[in-house]
Prior knowledge:
heterodimer; A: 274 residues; mainly alpha; MetI-like fold; B: mainly alpha; 10 helices; 0% strand
Amino acid sequence: MQPLERPAPDLARDGGRRARRRTTRLRERLLDHVFAEGLVVAAVLGWWGLSRGMPDYVMPGPQTVLIALVRLFVDFDFLRHTLASTLRVVGAVVASTLIGGALALLPHRYPIWDVIVHERVKPFLNSFPSVGWAILALIWFGSSNPSIVFVEVAILTPFCLVNISEGLKEIDRELLEMGRSFTRNRRRVFFKIALPLLMPYVIAALRIAYGVGWKIALIAELFGAETGLGYLMLNAQTTADATTVFATCFAIVLMFSAGEKLVIDPLARRFHSG
Amino acid sequence: MAGPAAPRGGARLAGHLFTLAALGIWALYAASVDPYVMPGPIAVARRLGEFFADLDLLRHMLYTFAHILGAVAISFVVGGALSLMAFYLPRTKLMVHGRLSPFLNSFPGIGWTLLAIVWFGVNDFTVVFAISAVLVPFAIINMREGLEAIDAELLEMSHSFGRSRWRQFLRIVVPALYPFIFATLRISFGVAWKVALTAELFGGNTGLGYLLNLARQNFDMPLLLAVIVIIIAFVYSSDRFLFAPVQSRLAKHHAAA
């Protein structure tokens, strides 16, 4: 349905209307924020009210949790754990993007691998339970840094594989043919055409892996780790320290949003426009 | 989800060979280490057989199913309601999609489980609560995509035909949402499996996750691997034989409409 053609509006009136529209839009946006921030304030207030009648080991108040949360980023004894988890997540995300990418490229380049990767490895990794990896890694490798990173990589790889192979499928139809008609050098086609086209999918894979990575970091660290937020959290739970459980959860929310805003979003913007 | 339409015979053969090789390597490796580190495929298969003969173990499987179905239903209703609220009351859009959903989305599932244990104790409610809390943001995000994909002009046109908002909702909005409702359920189901095990492991006294924990404590590797095999089989076959065909049929129907 095409919009009906409107008669050319009077310019002066149009300017006035535009200004008025701008102020209403501003007011609209302000009201949106009133509602959104209202929810946050209401949630914190409700939490505070709820916690007043309850002991700290059941429902610690916002102020107690805030202190514990700050401590996680300031006090070295706690910062140690936050950093350990962060490094593991970042390492696992990078490793699983590389492994997932390699697994996706393999059948793309050599079709004989198609069934192996897409109908054997992918569904297997995809449906393997994360707790299963965590328990198996503990039995196989004991509790160590590589063991935890192994668990995270095992869980994240299928997400990256799915995204990057999706990307490979898409770009195939587009420009590769044309690229080949210009040069026969496969490496040139790959680096000059395929890779830049693939980047948005790689970034999407990174984004998903990063989000899932923080969620499962705890699972990976729950069994037998000696550092990390998961270790802190389990320790806190066994000593009935709900404050620390809350604080570690919020620390993860913060780290996740920070990483997404400061690293993933800029990367996505850069490769989207370029 | 499936790769190219018809993989060539060579690739298919390679796939089967790969499966055989993987089983062979597993058997060889298992033969060379202690059984509590890695039992062989035959030991695991035998344990799997015992599993299905043992009513008590089957009961745990049914419990896991019940937890998952309950949580998928609850999170779908809650997430769908929140998405609809953001759609029909645009004022609350930033609140739902800008505050609530990102928060829920980044809050770790294990955190919900541990907190629920403190609040509700170790029981089925804790498990269902923890799974639902993890699933709600998935439902919000997916239903939002569906609602935003609805053609605004279609809505406008239906407005001019009838004034009943309820009729409009049932006749236009809900049918347009079918593929997204389905995708939401499919994703929820897949995620629910993974979360359910963790939640049951810590916060439950029933379910496959509880069995995994028992197996871990007793170093019962055959049981551990048998449970993992069951989970892989269920997740894979439900996706492949239930969700994928229905989704492709829905997609076809909607492409034709």
